Amino acid sequence: MEWDWSSVPTATGRAADIVPFLDDLLGGDEERRDHAFHRLFTEIVNQGDLSPAAAPATDRIMRTLRKRGTLPEYGWLMLFELFRGASYGRTVCAPDGEHDIEVYCRRRILAGLEVIERSVAGLAGKAFSSCMLLLGSMGAYIPEIRAILAAEVSRSSGERLQAASDALEVAVELAAEREQVFEEVRAACAGRPIDDVRRALAAGFEKAELYVWNEVAEDAARTISEGR
């Protein structure tokens, strides 16, 4: 998919302005990668708030991953931030139509799960730790990814074991906390109008200090409202 970078806004400008920083993030020396990450963080995923330019940036990083089969540490870290970011209903006009920004970024990253999994064995140090952060965030929603993390724990040692164990723990805990809210709301609201269920879920997530994907929350609300 070819983006018109000049037409997509960042937090303070246009996506065309961040292309050199993406180049440095993915191919510069360590100092340039560090600088690029912090500049991109400000422009596309500031405090977890995704700007429209997060979408083409995700595509660029994932294209590089597919081509090379790996990423430097800050490439993985940026994917982690993009995957867990939120856009609060804001959209981006992509070449194939309008998309919710956070949904677009997540789906593009999830579509690359196979190449992400293949890359893990060849990672070390900060790159491995950053990839584990991404997989931990993904694993909170995808059981298959928790299985990938469990397998990595079983064959790792030292710092690698610690990073994989931490990622698996995060994934399992977040999944359990989300499911607990679902069960509490199901017990109280099964069969009730869907708007009542939505409000109850939102209150439960806020109390638990959880951010849950809109599409996941909506699916749960529909299921609970239908008494399933």
Topology at a glance:
Blueprint: H1 19-27, H2 30-44, E1 45-46, E2 49-50, H3 54-68, H4 73-84, E3 91-94, E4 97-100, H5 101-110, H6 113-120, H7 125-139, H8 143-155, H9 158-189, H10 194-208, H11 214-225
Helix pairs in contact: 1-2, 2-4, 3-5, 4-5, 4-7, 7-8, 7-9, 8-9, 9-10, 10-11
Query: What would the average pLDDT be, to the nearest integer?
Result: 94
How many alpha or pi helices?
11
Shape annotation: globular
Rg: 19 Å
CATH hierarchy, class: Mainly Alpha
Largest sheet: 2 strands, antiparallel
Poorly predicted residue ranges: none
Task: Describe the overall structure.
With 228 residues, this protein is mostly helical. The strands form 2 sheets. The protein has a two-stranded antiparallel sheet. Strands 3-4 form a two-stranded antiparallel ribbon. β3 and β4 form a beta hairpin. It is globular, with a radius of gyration of 19 Å.
Provide a short characterization of the protein structure:
The protein contains eleven helices and four strands. The protein is mainly α. It has a single domain, classed as Leucine-rich Repeat Variant, CATH 1.25.10.
